[in-house]
Each structure stands twice: as C-alpha cells, then as structure tokens.
Amino acid sequence: MTRYFDNAATTYLSDRALDEYIRTAREYSANPSSIHRDGQKAKDKLERTREESAELLGIDPRSLFFTSGATESISIFFSSLLWLEPGIILTDKIEHEAVSSYWPILERYGWRIDYLKAKGGFINPEDVKAKLSKDVKVVSVMNTNNVVGAIEPIKEINEIIREKEREYNHRISFFSDSVQALGKTDLDLTLSGVDAASFSAHKINGPRGIGMLYLRNPERLRSIAPAGGQERGKRGGTENLPGIAAMKEALKEWIENREESEEEIKACNKLIRDGAEALGYRIISPSVNTTPYILSLSQSLPSEVFTRIMADKGFCISSGSACSNNAKGKSEGILEAMGVRADEARRAIRVSFSKDTKKEDAIELLKAFEEVKKNV
Ligand code: PLP
Q1: Does any ligand 1 atom lie closer than 6 A to the CB of residue 320?
Q2: Is this prediction's pTM over 0.85?
Q3: Which strands make up the sheet holding 173-177, listed edge to edge?
Q4: Which of 12, 43, 148, 262 lies at 20 to 30 Å from 30 by C-alpha?
C-alpha cells in the first residue's frame, strides 16, 4: 500500500470527475464547432460548463477560457506579449518554470526581466512599489508557491499596480499563476483585481491535460495561436469537452468539501510539522500566510536519497517540485531565491496534501521519518 503525499505534483482522478468525463464523452461526441445538431448539442454543453465553472470561480463566463492545462494558459498569456512593443516584466525567481521558461524568448525580442526579492517565500508589496518604473508593462507574481506554499499578497500588489497605472497613465498587466490556489484558498479574482490567471484541473482531482485561463479583459490579449478560432480566438484546437466537464465537476467537489476536509489537512500538516521539528528537521514552509496543502522541510540526507528511502517504505513524497519533471536543482534554485541556504535546499523535501489525506497516513509518515532518523 502506498501512502500518497505528492498532491502538489498531481492528484488522483476522483470518481465524480471520472463519471462526468465518461458521461460527457458518451453523450457529447460531436465537435462543438460543427453546425449539425450533435455539434450544437456539444457547443451548448461547452457553454453551459463555462457558465457553471465561472460561477464556481465567481467570475464572468466571458473571462474564462479552456486550455490544455496551466502550462498552456501561461503560454497563451506570455507568448501574446510578442505582439507588443517590448518593456519590462517585473517578476521574481520563485515562479514555476511554466512561467520563467518564457524569459529567454521574451528577452530575445527586446523585453527586459526585472526581479523582486522573495525572502522567506514572500514578495514584499513595498518592493513592488519601489521597482514599478514607467517601463514596466507586466507584473507576474504567482498566487501560491508550489515549493513551500507561501501565499503572496496579491491584493496589495494589485493596489500598487493600479496606483502606478494612474500615475503613469498607461496600462500594466498583472498575471498570477494560481494553480496551487484553486479550490484551496479564498481565491477572489474579481476582488484581487488580477488581469490574468492560470489554473489546472489535475491538482484538484480532475483530469490531466485540462486547465483554464482567466482574462479580465479578453479583448486586450491577441493570441499567437488562434488557429481555428476556438475559445474566441485565444486557444485554437478542438475543445476537450469531457475534460472540461470533468474539471468543472472536480472543482465543484473540492468547493463542496473544502471546509470539512481542510480541518483534517491542517491537522495532518501540524502533526508532521511539529513531529518533524521535534526530530530536528528544519521547517522551510512559512508558518503564516501559507497553504496547509504544502509543507517543505529540510533533513539530513540529500533530497533524492531521502525520497527514495521513503518510496521503499511505501510513501510518495517529493524531493522538490515534481510538477517540473523533478529535475535536480530546479526547486533548489527556487529555495535559494527565498534565502534558504544551498546545503539545506539540497536536503529539502516536500510533503503535500489533498482533500482525501487522512490523519492515520500522516501518523505513519511521521513514524517513517523517525525510523530514517534513527538509522542515519
Ligand atoms: N504552475 C504551478 C504553480 C504548478 O504547480 C504547476 C504544476 O504542474 C504548473 C504551473 C503547470 O501546470 P500543468 O501541469 O497544468 O501544466
């Protein structure tokens, strides 16, 4: 039996989402772009699902675009900048690679990338204020960090951006990768005021390969890949209707169960946090303004060695951020950007929870931590 603590990398597909996937695949098999009756039936289902998803997110359905995952949502946003006169992108060094991998190509086309500090995992709004010069056209700060779980002060950052917009009398676009926030924080896109955000279904027990892009003012973004004009020209390609319907169902299920399951997750997180600390592990995740779903700690073995030992004992944990191919060094760089010492970053592990994580499993994980500690 494996006990799964790698939910920030991906979650299993819930029965409810899978049932919806199968039902939609069977009932709506035509292409939503076809003008025959079956095509129009699929189109109706697509638009109904958009409305229901938008309602769950508290946004206007016209602001919601379905994509093949957060990576594509991010790609649509950042590649669209190639149409524009270049300027500065103000960001940080703790963004997911799906975002930061755009910097080299954008730099090649004249954009400049400027970095905010991320001490302890947090962006300081005062730093945003100081660095937001007239040439900044885009600010990119993620909502919830996937390595340590820090929740960024998005609302405060947005207020500063809008203040500067008024002062400079030009638009500044605020992008926030919100993958680790979906269903897990009180995400209020309208209130926080971001211009664009990315989401993924497979972090909330939905299927892989399906995601969403939020665009507050869709008319301002010109996609570089409109292809057949689907998703109102933002994301070309035949829509994955079963995936879209299953994502909506997964989101609904999360929201319905969140209050109850989060109590258990907080308890699991605390149990491991306190227990590991007592064993001499260093807790890297912040203690406030952090998601209970992610816990990053540093122990005495190289991350990969520790992760393998735990795997042999039947536990899935991560040596960093497995959503970026678990490649050695990537999350280490992110941790160092937060001020974590290089040797601690090399010994960092990530334990991540889902709505179905049980306290018994957390107790077993802690016991395994103790065994490893005794034997090294
Ligand atoms: N952004 C963050 C913060 C993530 O954790 C992930 C994880 O995979 C992604 C983006 C990419 O999401 P997707 O797998 O849907 O492309």
Answers
A1: no
A2: yes
A3: 64-67, 211-215, 196-200, 173-177, 136-140, 88-92, 112-116
A4: 12
